[in-house]
Amino acid sequence: MPKKSIPLHYLSNESGLGISLHRIDRMNQMNAPHMDAHRDDHGNFFFQEDGHARLMVDFREIELRGSGVFCIMPGQVHYPLETEGSYGWFLGVDMSLLDEHHRAVVDEYALHGFPVSLDSAQADLLMRSLHLLLEFYESPSQYGQAVIQSMLKTCLGIFTSLFEKEILQRTVQTRPSAITSQFRKLLLQHFKTVKSPSEYAGMLSITTSYLNEVVKETSGQPVSHWIQNEVMMEAKRLLYYTDLSIKEIAFGLGYDDHTYFSRLFRKVSGKSAGQFREEFRK
Asked: Does the reported pTM lie above 0.85?
């Protein structure tokens, strides 16, 4: 049966708390769970205590060695490639539970999407906190939702502090970089319906020329590049993981003229949409 959409996994919410928490036991290539490519309707926070794991996230390979943390955002297509002796923790969270600061940090982190290595003290703190959260999570009648939510906020705070520290080490915080980050976040929300640089400039209350200037200064590419890049990433997801026709994909991404979409795809990707589907499915 033709696949018309990318599988979407929903957060198991039997507890009514908007989270799912469990330990990840040591795994190897033989006993690792065979999980097909999918999206999630929630955020996934991973803490690897030790081992080696490789994941594919939106056609980009992510590798974790030793102790580290990583986050996959709602909507990103992902699946495991390899797990060698990997063990740690998985925390699935309804993103509406994050407070304003934590959500801002995670959104900024998602623009870069790098795994963050931990030292022994950081790993120990996160491990002890998650153990406590798991104890509370498994006995909700004993501890009550208020205690569980408080401990969840602590764990999310540790994750986001680790992300924030890494972001600050890797990026220089200037007004142009802040505007670029704001633009990229707006783009993630609106790329299917808003494709004009001037509309994004309006959302940010700045001129189109200034938005182009600062985005090119900080990223090396103009606004139009990032708009096309985001649209084409979603197109590639749909081409690879579904059986939707090119015409259906074009319409779903806001293009009434599918021939224009096809020309744009070739221009951005260097190959036709049909060639991309054929080559990546081999």
From this structure: no
